[in-house]
Amino acid sequence: MSQEPSALDRSGPRRPRPPDRQTLLRLAAVLAIAVLAVGVAVFVIRQQLPRDSTTPATSTIDSPADTTPGTAIWNVPQGFLGTWKGTAGDGAHTIDVVLTIIAGKTAEEVATSADTDRLSGDRCERAERVVSLAATELTFAGRATGGVGCPDNGRTTTVELRPDGSLGYQAPGPNGSILVGTLHLS
Fold this sequence. Notes:
Shape: elongated
Low-confidence stretches: 52-72
Number of strands: 8
Oligomer: single chain
Strand content: 35-45%
């Protein structure tokens, strides 16, 4: 004889109903947004953390050998240090350049420059702050410290350490021209 379950047996613990398709889609969307938010937060936090010399840089700037005390990153490579002299010109103007570079790192004023225009005799003196660097190239932003007829503050000068030991020099000239020259360690 078979026994039918009683009303009490049927009302026992119920199994939860499986979620419908719409609920599953909502849960998947919320989960995807949460994962994305965590990923963005991790990226932002990693960009804000200071790097030590064992952490690879995520930018296009190389990390040359350290030339300053401490654990600074992106220091001016040893080969750039010293006083450099030479000329630069744009075909119409020629200037005598004296550039002195000392040990330091990105964003510091690590150089002084003095440009003397051969035609007018005007002399500009600047403090130069490193705005980017690589193993063989430095770019400075200048701040006028003295002289006559100096171009605007913030003008950029780029120097490149060449295999022959000279320094390629490039800076804005008068009337939008580019002054190009070669400097030698003195």
